[in-house]
Amino acid sequence: MPIEPQITPSAPRHLLVALTIVAATALAACAPQAVRPAAATTAVAAPWLERLTYGLNSSTLAEYQRLGRAAYLDAQLADRPAPLPEAVERQIDGLEITRAEPARLLEDVNAEYKRINAMPDGPDKEQARKALNERGNRLAYEAARRHLLRAIYSPAQLREQMDWFWLNHFSVHLYKANVRWLVADYDEHAIRPHVFGRFRELLMATLTHPAMLQYLDNAQNAGGHVNENYARELMELHTLGVDGGYTQADVQALARILTGVGINAGAAPKLKAEWQPLYRRAGAFEFNPARHDFGEKRFLGQTFEGRGYAEVERAVELLVHQPACARFVSRRIALYFVSDDPPPQLVERMAKTFQATDGDIGAVLRTMLSSPEFEASLGAKFKDPTHYVVASLRLAYDGRTIVNTHPIVNWLNALGEPLWGRQTPDGYPLTEAGWASSGQISRRFEIAKAIANGSAGLFEPEDGSGGAAGGFPQLASRVYYDAFEPRLSAPTRQALERATSQVEWNTFLLASPEFNYR
Amino acid sequence: MNRRELLAFAAALPALTCAGRLIAAPRSPARFLLVFLRGGYDCVNLLVPYSSPYYYEARPRIAIARPQAGSASGAVALDADWALAAAVRESIGPLYERGEAAFIPFAGTDDVSRSHFETQDSLELGQPIAGARDFRSGFLSRLAAVLNGAAPIAFTDSLPLVFRGNTEIPNISLKALGKPAFDARQADILQAMYAGHHLRAAVADGLELRQEVARTMEDEMLAANRGAVTTKGFELEAARIGHLMREQYNLGFVDVGGWDTHVNEGGAQGPLATNLENLGRGLRTFADTLGAEWKNTVVVVVSEFGRTFRENGNAGTDHGHGSVYWVLGGSLKGGRVAGAQQRVTAATLFQDRDYPVLNDYRAVLAGLFRRLWGLSPSPLERVFPSTEPTDLGLV
User: A424 and B117 in contact by Cβ < 8 A?
Assistant: First the structure.
């Protein structure tokens, strides 16, 4: 479609003048000799950095310029925590989830349910039930708040993306049973410690977490009352993939192996003497031999004698060593980081690394990130809502600390990708097709406008204590001029030129194809 | 935004429409809307089996009283066995009398997991229950693919499973609408950025839909000016859906939540009755909004499963199996309770718990689609593989 240059008297010219002043001011603030070469490096490195991080901001660019590509990649892959800006750390320290113990929480919740159920029907009972749910929802909100603050502000940007990726791979749904009380701990203790670690340990951490056991019903899976839900998803979604070569008989066998793996937030059960050594307990996780099916099973071609929890460990060992597991997990990572249709030879090399390193996720990532296929794919991956919103905020509020994350949670809700909001166990889509429907795109443009006009209240403290007024963000920043401007297409430039206000200009930039891909 | 601005907005539409793909006029006048009640609605308290003494025995606190002959309120007898709950008496009752409504009891899927997620997925995918599921292939998407001139749309936030497939299907939620975020000039600029891009059509569709909806809102304002009652909730949403389906779309989907009544669901009055009343009013508004096109339109209301026949300890009901589907349409041969039926007794409950499924939803819908669009066996097989259509003679 040919673009007719629109003749709107004076407004764009005013804007250009204004932008030039902004740019000049930004440049003047820097050491004159350092600026241009660094800017040139930035323009070249920007697509790579946009994929490696949630999106560009000035501290990411500065770190890259300081370290160079190789050392920056090493730092991103380093399996150690990176300090958050102090003002962000303070917010997280103040959250209730920072102190809450899941086993204690579950105990409290169970006791409260018991109390409520014993109450006579009526408004008091409804009120108590509502209050309990609201408290659970608040804890889940805090978990989302912590996750989002880290995504926006942590220098360990690859780690934060992997945290989201694994949460999504081992997806749980907030509104099932008591999951809302558990998601904070699930993120912090089941997922985060293992994002670059061994896949087997990550898998075991999810298998023994009450959030997963509740979400996929294994807490109800017992000898004689077998529930296959978790066993099936464990193979289909977590390890082998639906074409991973297992049968319905394997699902049934794994379900029987998993009998007795459940939750207990109260006292240990009274067990027969011979079962006592087989009992396992860690926090709210429990393996109860009295609920286990000790019969013999055939699983993935091997015979499993009835040995209790040792069967579970052996089954997991068997699963993670299947070539199908290496391929499936590698392909999922490549779907998220490389392409909607990952090159098979890249997936194959990643799978080889997976097998050669006993499932070392960091090593698999390094294989992928250093590949020519990764390099060739830059700029062509559609941002899912989380990437989109976080990238927008990193650019728009570069260097400012957001103190109210409610608008961000609302935007992710509106865009259909709230944390722990996926009902089905398959996790959110990792491809463009899941996010680029017409309704989703127009909604995204509306969110772009909301971010662009700065009126959402991101800087008004959540406790209502007042605070800095927003004002619209200055997206036409040095990061923009160094990292985005050189890459814009002609239609995007023309659109930006037609903007009649800074807010409109911000909106168009955030809505542009360039900003919607990474 | 005032009315003049809205009118100016509408005037700018034709130019925008040319950029998108929404101009294709449907080739068959038939329109179909699927309404999904998510949560498993308690069908037994909608279509009341009043001839069954066991119904009154099993639901001491929440049963709906037997219809009274000649009474203008309360449940209304549809035949010697079934009565329609008073909650939908005003909205759906007249449609039923005119033959524009029918109910299919003992309808549902062959998924017996009694899990919301599982069964919703099963229903939306419409694939045989045994075998691997393809989560990228919902049955309405397959229907859109076999129809000549389908103009599908989902009235939901994201694309529901039922519409997932190979072709792009537009979606927009009509629940809560602010004024459009962009005026015509801004929409034009946004579209221009995607001029040579593969998302061009999706961007154009999305922005145009918002404008189309703005026109609907203008109609609402005009209606309000004529002193019409203010609508809200599902009724408002249904009016907007009716407008879009009258003007542009012939294959729609919408979901309505709030049916998972485990606790204190009520009987003739209460939370369930209120939900049913809102639903009934919304569907009636939808029918009225379609105007002359109502005669070409069929609505089917489904839910993932029914609920336990007996009330539970909390004066509610738990997850069950067979449901009651609604079929509405301006040219329907309705006014009856359709499909295979059986006596409702303690002995005939499925697994001593809930309604059995005697009318498989795929067979019923396949039969309906066959009539509605004159589909031959091969496209029908694509929509619902391995399904023998059941013809209930409703259309």
Answer: yes
When pLDDT is cut at 50, 70 and 90, the band that residue A314 belongs to is very high
Across the interface, whether the CB atoms of B192 and A423 are under 8 A apart is answered: no
Backbone phi and psi for residue B352, each to the nearest 5 degrees, phi listed first:
55, 35
User: Is A318 a residue whose pLDDT tops 80?
Assistant: yes
Q: Distance (Å, rounded) from C-alpha A445 to C-alpha A457?
A: 19
Contacts of B190 in chain A (CB under 8 A): 445, 495, 508, 511
Model confidence at A513: pLDDT above 90:
yes
Asked if the Cβ–Cβ distance from B159 to A437 is below 8 Å, we say yes
Q: Is 70 exceeded by the pLDDT of residue B18? A: no
Helices (H), A54-156: 58-77, 86-93, 102-118, 123-153
- Please say if the pLDDT value at position B216 is more than 80: no
Phi-psi region of B337 (alpha: psi -120 to 50; beta: other; left: phi over 0): beta
Which among A173, A250, A438, A489 is the top mutation candidate for probing chain B, defined by the most B β-carbons within 10 Å of its own β-carbon?
A438
In terms of Cβ atoms closer than 10 Å to its own Cβ (0-12, 13-18, 19+), residue A223 is middle
Q: Which residues contact B32 (CB under 8 A, 6 or more apart)?
A: B250, B251, B252, B297, B298, B299, B300, B369, B372
Query: What ipTM was assigned to the predicted interfaces of this complex?
Result: 0.88
**Triad A480, A483, A484: Cα angle to 5°:** 60
Our measurement of the distance from residue B268's CA atom to the centroid of its chain's CA atoms, rounded to an integer in Å, reads 23
C-alpha to C-alpha distance for A64 and A236, rounded to whole angstroms = 39
Q: With contacts defined as CB-CB under 8 Å, which chain B residues touch A381? A: none
Q: Tally A–B CB contacts below 8 A.
A: 99
From chain A, pick out residues whose CB is under 8 angstroms from the CB of B252. none
| C-alpha A490, offset from chain centre | 34
Nearest residue on chain B to A425, alpha-carbon basis: B117
Asked whether the beta carbons of A199 and A249 are under 8 A apart, the reply is: no
Q: Amino acid identity of A439?
A: G
Pairing of strands A285-287, B359-360: unpaired
Residue B48: enclosing H or E segment and its boundaries? Answer: strand B47-49
| A465, A469, A473, A479 alpha-carbon torsion, rounded to 10° | -60
